[in-house]
Amino acid sequence: xxxxxxxxxxxxxxxxxxxxxxxxxxxxxxxxxxxxxxxxxxxxxxxxxxxxxxxxxxxxxxxxxxxxxxxxxxxxxxxxxxxxxxxxxxxxxxxxxxxxxxxxxxxxxxxxxxxxxxxxxxxxxxxxxxxxxxxxxxxxxxxxxxxxxxxxxxxxxxxxxxxxxxxxxxxxxxxxxxxxxxxxxxxxxxxxxxxxxxxxxxxxxxxxxxxxxxxxxxxxxxxxxxxxxxxxxxxxxxxxxxxxxxxxxxxxxxxxxxxxxxxxxxx
Length: 267
What we know:
AB_hydrolase_fold, AB hydrolase-1 domain-containing protein, AB_hydrolase_1, globular
């Protein structure tokens, strides 16, 4: 009897990082450097209406297609780790919950790191935030209604947009568009449908940690990490701690593969 063939290794894990509202892929610069230094393929994407794509309209379908495009750049069969912050976290959970997308291009969604997104986008808090965004855009339009012959200017651009030079980030109109797309969607339902491990990462000072216990309970394989002294933008508030979480996730995947659980990863 011939000796058994050694298992054929699958490609090393690839990581897709998805930013939140009114930011861009640049918020992940530190994490991309860290992951690539560790030998991982890593790409941070711009969602529609953000970063290099500010001229586009935001839609959930367009956001999911953005991850499709990123996954398609990886070798066939690559285990993929989705990392999302806030809006990006909701998008990653929606992607991983879709069985048709979870295996796109022969890839496997091996894990999801869902940061600052354990509050379902529905109910009074979301309605209030949408109303604030709509009022901001409406007030600007009234105060800055162009006179005849004067150039038309867009909605306000603020200087605190993470990942954009001052005055160049997306305005509040993208908030109403994005929340309109995801409002009423059950993140808890998405979490329950995901078969791969989910790592919920929240800043201890984030006031949006409204349902973290419920999200953890719904996950088939869930883990919760609270980062001390960090707020909503946990990856930029505490970059070293966030990098350590990513290291833990990748090590966990390696351990699972070594024991025959989940995708086999190259050492």
